[in-house]
Amino acid sequence: MRTQTIVFENIKDFNLAHIFECGQCFRWNPSKDGKSYIGVAGSYAVKARVDKVQDRLDFTEVIGIGEEADTEVCNLTLEVTGGGESFWADYFDLNTNYSIIKDSLINNEPQISDAVEYGRGIRILNQDKFETLISFIVSQNNNIPRIKKCIESICRKYGESLGDVFGEERFAFPSVERMSTASVQELMDLKLGYRSKYIVAATEKYMNEGCPNNYEEVIAYPGVGPKVANCIMLFGLHSVEAFPIDTWVKQIMKDMYSFDENNIKGMSEFAARKFGAYAGYAQQYLFYYYRDRK
DNA sequence: CGGCAGGCGGTTA
DNA sequence: TAACCGCCTGCC
């Protein structure tokens, strides 16, 4: 399939590895060239690359995906099968000033500064709501490689083919309508396990009621508890005050603030008080920092 | 083999 | 309301 190129210039606080490895998305992977990530967002395939902008305005250097161009000014180059500039600017949250967010977090809680520095190129993506709902139902009691495999299987079976892009066939995440054709047995065959019935029921509910708009509506979905609901709020609805508490965050809160690991309520209240409207960003910096150190 | 991985839903006390 | 338990699967 043909692609077009979109370039966003002079971006700060942006690092592909930080963005794609901080637990918010499941459909991006490093490309073999070591300088790009390839993914699918919405119904578009995309290859993303970052160039570091040097002192001379006419010279840029393509850097590897693990390298640092995030506190420096950089350019983001996207090869995409569709979507306009505004779609991709929104997807990558390019109109948000992360320097302000990071300064605010560190001022209110100096103990978080190492984590913020470590994940300083993180962006909270604006992902499709239905995809986020189903993906995080799949994520429960599950590990990342298998979550990615499960979601890829769903896309392959029910999603629209995007044709051969960047070396292999890519598939969009299925629409609600297409997903509603799936049976529990079919999903079991895709190795989704006991989450299969949740996915069928959640798709049905979404078909009937439309997109959930707040935490109470999200957690009312089958297979969605507090942790998954907060992930959907943060990653799907972009409610950046949401603070998902998973097994990693429990460990972090125990280590940093001596919380009992069962005291979820206490951790939530602490996060709301300490990080306020930016709790979701704090969660991402902390999660990425601690998980990478294990 | 048991334990565990970005939990949830149902049951029990 | 808190504590416990079973659950699909894959990997170590």
What does this structure look like?
By secondary structure, the protein is of the alpha+beta class. It has three domains: 4-118, TATA-Binding Protein; 129-235, Endonuclease III, domain 1, CATH 1.10.340.30; 247-293, Endonuclease Iii, domain 2 (Orthogonal Bundle), CATH 1.10.1670. The protein has 14 helices and eight strands. A hairpin with a 2-residue loop joins strand 7 (161-165) and strand 8. Helix 5 packs antiparallel against helix 9 (195-209) and helix 5 packs antiparallel against helix 11. It is globular. It starts with a strand and ends with a helix. The protein binds a DNA duplex (13 and 12 nucleotides) through residues 23, 136-137, 139-147, 149-150, 188, 191-196, 198, 222-228, 231, 244, 246-249, 262, 287, 291.
Low-confidence stretches: none
* CATH class annotation of the largest domain: Alpha Beta
Q: How much beta, percentage-wise?
A: 15-25%
Any guess at the CATH architecture of the largest domain? 2-Layer Sandwich
Overall structural domain count: 3
Q: Find the structural class using helix and strand composition.
A: alpha+beta
